[in-house]
Design brief:
The protein starts with 8 loop residues before the first helix and ends in a 5-residue tail after the last helix. The strands form two sheets. The protein has a two-stranded antiparallel ribbon with strand order 1-2. The protein has a two-stranded parallel sheet with strand order 3-4. With 227 residues, it is mainly α. It has eleven helices and four strands.
Length: 227
């Protein structure tokens, strides 16, 4: 059952313009994917020095792989491997804090930890400015993600909400989206995230995507809400 009462219109009204439904234009079908490819190619080239420096810094400062490939739920519920720079110490799967976070997430709570001991010093910096997310430009080029869309969740997080997840998985997951700019870093529920995502996909348009992207930039630069 879709929990519409969790939606907070006051936080989304200024960002999402509902005047242009997605069926009114071909943007959702064709234009969005074209922009995704151009965006990903341009920023991979433009940010290549930063990407190389980040990879080298991770290699020199901590043991473990430079990149992580995590299974995430994508469009139509299909699993794909989301790519991120590693920000945590390697081989800490039995950490009690990780277990606690997983329990909360599986019960519907999106859990954030202040000064998480699993995160490396470099990892904290990468997370603060969302640099760890940049390898997902490769996921965009592969057609597994979009620049703007619902955030791809781990399988165990959506397992308790199969019907709700069907509603949010009709579009490609995004590098950023309405939930990220509205509740970035807050401890909220999976159902709240779904509400934001369903509202977004009901009003997909170039104007709305541009608004979300412009709101993302200052949030990332300031490191808003990152723990």
């Amino acid at each position: 059952m879709y929990h519409s009462e969790l939606l907070e219109p006051s936080q989304t009204k200024s960002v999402i313009d509902g005047s242009t439904p997605p069926s009114a234009t071909g943007y959702a079908r064709y234009g969005k994917r074209t922009i995704d490819i151009i965006f990903a190619l341009y920023f991979m080239l433009f940010l290549s020095p930063l990407l190389l420096l980040t990879a080298l810094s991770i290699f020199l400062t901590s043991r473990g792989p430079i990149l992580l490939r995590q299974p995430r739920v994508g469009k139509d519920g299909k699993l794909f491997k989301m790519i991120k720079f590693r920000t945590m110490r390697h081989h800490r799967p039995d950490n009690p804090l990780a277990h606690h976070a997983n329990l909360l997430a599986s019960s519907g709570v999106l859990f954030k930890v202040d000064r998480d001991p699993r995160v490396t010093g470099l990892g904290a910096l990468l997370r603060r400015f969302s640099i760890d997310e940049l390898p997902q430009l490769l996921n965009i080029l592969k057609g597994q993600m979009s620049v703007i869309g619902p955030r791809p969740l781990l399988p165990f997080m959506v397992a308790p909400y199969p019907q709700e997840n069907i509603l949010r998985s009709k579009v490609l997951p995004g590098l950023t989206g309405l939930w990220q700019i509205s509740a970035r870093g807050e401890s909220s529920s999976v159902l709240q995230m779904i509400d934001y995502d369903v509202r977004y996909q009901a009003h997909i348009s170039f104007r709305n995507d541009l608004r979300i992207l412009l709101r993302t930039i200052p949030a990332v630069v300031k490191g808003t809400g990152v723990k």
